[in-house]
Amino acid sequence: MRQSLRSSPTFWLTAFLAVTSSASPIFSGSDVAQLVEDLEELPATLKDIYVSGSSHPAKNETRRCKVYPGDLEWPSDEAWEKLNELTDSRLLTKPEPKASVCYNGPSYDAEKCAGLAPIWSRSYTHMHDPIEMMSPVAQGMTCLPPNVFDSGNCTRGGFPMYVINATEPKHVQLGVNFARNTGVRLVVKNTGHDFLGKSGGKDALSIWTHYFKSIEYIEDFVDEKLGYSGPAFKAGVGVQAFEIYKAAREKGRTVVGGEGETVGIFGGYIQGGGHSPLSSLYGTGADQVLSFEVVTAAGDFVTANSSSYPDLFWALRGGGGSTFGVATAVTVKAHPDMPTTAARFSFTSEKIGNETFWAGIRSYVDYFIPNADAGTYAYFTLIPNVWTGIFTFNMSPFFAPGKTLEETEALLQPWLTRLSDLGINVDPNITHWDNFHDAWRSSFPLETVQKVNATTGSRMFPRANFETEEKREELYRNLRQSSENNRVQVHFNIKTVDPDNADNAVNSAWRPMILFAQQAVRWPVNATAVEKLRIRREFQEGDMQRWRDISPGAGSYLAEADRLEPNFGQAFWGDKYPRLLELKAKWDPQDVFFATTSVGSERWKVETPDGLPNENGKLCRVQSAPS
Ligand SMILES: Cc1cc2nc3c(=O)[nH]c(=O)nc-3n(C[C@H](O)[C@H](O)[C@H](O)COP(=O)(O)OP(=O)(O)OC[C@H]3O[C@@H](n4cnc5c(N)ncnc54)[C@H](O)[C@@H]3O)c2cc1C
Ligand SMILES: *[C@@H]1O[C@H](CO)[C@@H](O)[C@H](O)[C@H]1NC(C)=O
Ligand SMILES: *[C@@H]1O[C@H](CO)[C@@H](O)[C@H](O)[C@H]1NC(C)=O
Ligand SMILES: *[C@@H]1O[C@H](CO)[C@@H](O)[C@H](O)[C@H]1NC(C)=O
Ligand SMILES: *[C@@H]1O[C@H](CO)[C@@H](O)[C@H](O)[C@H]1NC(C)=O
Ligand SMILES: *[C@@H]1O[C@H](CO)[C@@H](O)[C@H](O)[C@H]1NC(C)=O
Ligand SMILES: *[C@@H]1O[C@H](CO)[C@@H](O)[C@H](O)[C@H]1NC(C)=O
Ligand SMILES: *[C@@H]1O[C@H](CO)[C@@H](O)[C@H](O)[C@H]1NC(C)=O
Ligand SMILES: *[C@@H]1O[C@H](CO)[C@@H](O)[C@H](O)[C@H]1NC(C)=O
Prior knowledge:
BBE, 31% helix, Vanillyl-alcohol Oxidase, Chain A, domain 3, FAD binding, 5-stranded antiparallel sheet, globular, Uridine Diphospho-n-acetylenolpyruvylglucosamine Reductase, domain 3, 20% strand, FAD binding domain-containing protein, binds flavin-adenine dinucleotide, binds 2-acetamido-2-deoxy-beta-D-glucopyranose, alpha+beta, flavoprotein, Oxid_FAD_bind_N
């Protein structure tokens, strides 16, 4: 049956079926046999709709924007209904933003609205939602609970219009094919944690990967080419940090994942690099990958590993999400579980004064290299308070995987002694656990999300910034200047060298890194669009540029960064960028996939009505795509 369908060159069929090059395998598996049967029964009316409504197979490359409602080519309701049928009724149509209960309209519910405000900044509130993302600034601020931010009324803004709640590769293939053949904008959403809001897109079709939740333990995974023989986990791409760490603990293992409790480990995190409480020992998240199962832009479901499509395998490990394909499962190395010690403490400038406070911070900078080299991950914040003039330092936590209590105390002692000599008395809570999972769970904060008036920029400061007294002084002065300019800083003293030296697309700037530094700029909640843009640009030209100036050639982390990061190709990928552009042209020549600041994204721009960088606008070309 498949044969006869493939040999009939029926035009409308190609709207759903994979376009396969001779080098690519055709669909495999029973899902696909079923899909082919379903397509055979498509009504003739739908066929006509496809013929007139899409530009397949010779896509009109001159179309300036993706296809939007109101365009002649926008798929009919019937076409969307058929997509729903083919995806086992998993297509959600116009899902309402969560805060729609707060605004006039059919969903209005005062009680539900009142319940939202207190939990709005928790990631758990949003992570099961088909469209919500953790950054409303990137969405366009069009529907928030009024107690958090008054949106005036509730519109979908930068949220997608249709969502496939995918649970099988077939659902993903159908979404990719539909978008490619109709020209509708495609987005991929997992948890929505990305700082830049890369899981959103106005009036797009979204493939929602959250419910790919399987976890399989493989006792002995062997890949001779990668030089790996050992335990592994094969996880669905919807698996989150708290889930994989728990599963690993049950097998006496750990895996490299984020510190953030609810981050999706096998989606944007792992494709974008990914730092971890275990990175100083094992490198980035992407360095752990042994294999991907992935749906390509052509709609093929393939394995990308060291021998099967090795170039795609290379690009997916660090090249960034929503660029080369939609992964459905990822196999990663598993490491032995280990006892872990963590310390938490804080101090403020309130009683000791500014100069003593900053002398304490300055003395800490001297220990960044030895602490990262010792395999630790220190997560600390520097918070200014513009009203009181008080600065706060929070170590939350100093995380020492594989270390005993005594070893951890010994590592911290030199700095704590200097603090005490300065008259800064801290009272560290140093706790030891016999396993990684419990240490992680008890030590890291659940970070707040949904900030309405802030954006974060980041820099990967290399070892060179810490090797001499002069350099450490310069770095310290620049952190202090940011605090004095009222920037909230979040830092990770960390090393991300892969001990196995994997050849992948991870930004080369990760390798010499000793400090992963973030700073956030804030603006008055009621600022106009023009003011916001001015503040954000000044931040890039000021505080961020100072950080870039003292770390020439270093980079920024693509998943924890600012949409306005200049020269993002260099910043997010360094010397890997030219090859990534070539692979983008090879694997997604039509730009089916797009995410802002992703590889090749400079060809496109979201045109927002107020000129702010967010998803609330049409995605249009800024120059003609390469032929
Ligand atoms: C509270 C918080 C804590 C964090 N902690 C850490 C941390 O400890 N370490 C760290 O490195 N980062 C951390 N991050 C950043 C995090 O890694 C990024 O937000 C990352 O993009 C999250 O990936 P996701 O798939 O969960 O998110 P999403 O925002 O849903 O997706 C991110 C990007 O990946 C794409 N994508 C998702 N799944 C797939 C897929 N299967 N195939 C193709 N593309 C896909 C999306 O289209 C999007 O472009 C944190 C972020 C937050 C908000
Ligand atoms: C291609 O798109 C352009 C611009 O939207 C339009 O003018 C033209 O008619 C289209 N051509 C075809 C063959 O659809
Ligand atoms: C509400 O939304 C409508 C439709 O998008 C828009 O025209 C109007 O200006 C909005 N009102 C407010 C108060 O934002
Ligand atoms: C998405 O699918 C999952 C798994 O079938 C289901 O549990 C969940 O309720 C669905 N979510 C929505 C919003 O449809
Ligand atoms: C890589 O994928 C191919 C195709 O699925 C498979 O035959 C091969 O065994 C895989 N390699 C490893 C090391 O698993
Ligand atoms: C400390 O510095 C801050 C910011 O520069 C300033 O507002 C504050 O007044 C200073 N505090 C003291 C006690 O000097
Ligand atoms: C120290 O931290 C541990 C782990 O988070 C916690 O259980 C304990 O109560 C803390 N001790 C004190 C004195 O705060
Ligand atoms: C940012 O918004 C928060 C409320 O969400 C508010 O408390 C804070 O003062 C605002 N910051 C500025 C600089 O306006
Ligand atoms: C924002 O609010 C502040 C304080 O209420 C006010 O002084 C300022 O004029 C407002 N700005 C705008 C643009 O409305």
